[in-house]
Amino acid sequence: MLDSKAATPLYVQLIEILERQITFGELEVGERLPSESELAKLYGVSIITVRNAVGELCKRGLLERKQGKGTFVRKAKFMRDSRTLSGFTESCRKQGMVPGARTLEKDVVPLGAKTARELGQAPGSKGIYLSRLRFADQESVIIEHSYFPMKYALLLEKDFDDCSLFEYLKEAYHVTVARSDKEIELCRATKTEGELLGVPENAPLILVKSTTYTQTGEPLYVGTQVMNGERFTLQITQGALI
Q1: For residue 162, what pLDDT is reported?
Q2: CATH topology of domain 78-235
Q3: pTM flag (> 0.90)
Q4: CA distances (Å), 196 to each of 143, 155, 159, 189, in order?
Q5: Which of 127, 85, 132, 133 lies closest to 108, judged by CA?
Q6: Predicted local confidence at residue 1, as pLDDT
Q7: Is the Cβ–Cβ distance between 40 and 47 less than 8 Å?
Q8: Second CATH level (architecture) for the domain 10-73
């Protein structure tokens, strides 16, 4: 039962109880919640209180309503903090997830005019292309496409399946990522992207375009990340202009 005399509103108390049950596995992913009337009776509150609590948990991505079927526990979304320069591997570990990767393609390729310019290379230059499928707890969530200057040719010799690219660059080239300029937009899944990410063709995806720089200010790589929007939350902080 909830405490009607407490300063914390009843719906907030119910949110905390349900969130705790989801976090500790008492309510499992895919499990159907009792109906609103059943929850109201169970916790001694009104249906409006239950509705407000469940609605808030749906907004947070912990629950989802399915028309005509009920309310179900969702998989926790992968939180990507765009306020920091941590790599995918580190982000996964911080959230208690197991990171993984599968190399899709790795080769020397001609750079397009825009990519060459962003990498500080001459027109018509070649570069290192690396494409990987990234996993969080064995679920595919990101397709990466990255272009590097030829000075990073050792990337062709390294196996990047289940390996941190950032950690390797620091070890082999003594470079760290100091800045990353990003553009974020929506796109639609191609047939191949849909197959890799386990979503239907034309499903909405998050597209992040990046130009990343080393601690000395040199361009390190230009790349894109295509993310399953249903599985991702991007955190961004803005401050007031001075």
Answers
A1: 80
A2: Chorismate lyase (3.40.1410)
A3: no
A4: 8, 23, 20, 10
A5: 127
A6: 67
A7: yes
A8: Orthogonal Bundle (1.10)
Main-chain dihedrals φ then ψ at residue 111, nearest 5 degrees:
-90, 135
The CA-atom distances, in angstroms, between 132 and each of 16, 159, 160, 193, 196 are: 38, 11, 8, 12, 11
Q: Which residue has the tokens 């760290």?
A: 176
User: Would you list the domain boundaries of the chain?
Assistant: 10-73, 78-235
Give residue for tokens 């000075």: 151
Q: Which two tokens stand for residue 129?
A: 């292309």
Which residues have C-beta within 8 Å of that of residue 18, sequence separation ≥ 6? 27, 33, 53, 54, 57, 62, 63
Place of tokens 């719906």: 11
Mean pLDDT within 156-184: 90
Question: What CA–CA distances, in Å, run from 52 to 9, 74, 184?
Answer: 11, 18, 32
> Residues 121-158: pLDDT tens digits?
999 999 999 999 998 888 888 999 999 999 999 999 99
Supply 175's token pair.
């470079």
| pLDDT recorded at residue 225 | 93
